[in-house]
Design brief:
The chain has helices spanning about 1-20, 35-45, 50-65, 75-90, 100-120, 130-160. With about 170 residues, the chain is an all-alpha fold.
Length: about 170
């Protein structure tokens, strides 16, 4: 379990480094992907709602502290909720479906990015106009959907190498 935690922490750190160092140069319509959110969604799709909340809260905290200028705690809340919702939808997916995880990644990315923008604007961030929030949600959803298959391979390998030990939580 400790090895899995260290691997997930390394993946979160790699996602932050890619988001801040590489992806500002590779924007799509002026927006970059949200790898922390995508990592949360892919783990939740693979391992369920408890893992989704754990990784989502961790990813949100890392993002709040290192990536975004939003109030600390906003990412924890929204990524945790996104991880839980995606994880709860897992039993309703076809086990061998190739499109269901992609649709979940797209939908969760669009909804979480829109929620992030809406809540940030409610917290008196005047930079976020409704049109900008919609553009960001669509661009991040598209970008995350394009990156999801590569991240699914990595997460599948992590989950197979370091399986969860269930104690009645998953």
């Amino acid at each position: 379990m400790i090895a899995r935690t260290l691997v997930v922490a390394a993946l979160l750190l790699a996602a932050v480094v890619l988001e801040t160092a590489l992806f500002p140069a590779l924007t799509l319509f002026g927006f970059r992907p949200d790898l922390l959110l995508l990592l949360t969604v892919v783990f939740a799709t693979r391992d369920g709602p408890v893992t989704g909340v754990r990784i989502g809260a961790s990813a949100g905290l890392v993002g709040d502290l290192l990536v975004s200028a939003a109030p600390v705690g906003l990412g924890v809340l929204l990524y945790g909720v996104a991880g839980a919702l995606v994880g709860w939808s897992r039993p309703y997916l076809a086990p061998n479906s190739a499109t269901a995880p992609l649709l979940l990644a797209a939908g969760a990315s669009v909804l979480a990015t829109a929620a992030y923008g809406i809540v940030s604007s409610l917290l008196a961030d005047e930079r976020l106009a409704p049109a900008l929030v919609v553009q960001a949600a669509i661009a991040v959803g598209l970008y995350n959907t394009l990156l999801a298959p590569a991240l699914q391979v990595v997460v599948r390998r992590v989950s197979e190498t370091f399986p969860l030990r269930t104690v009645g939580l998953e």
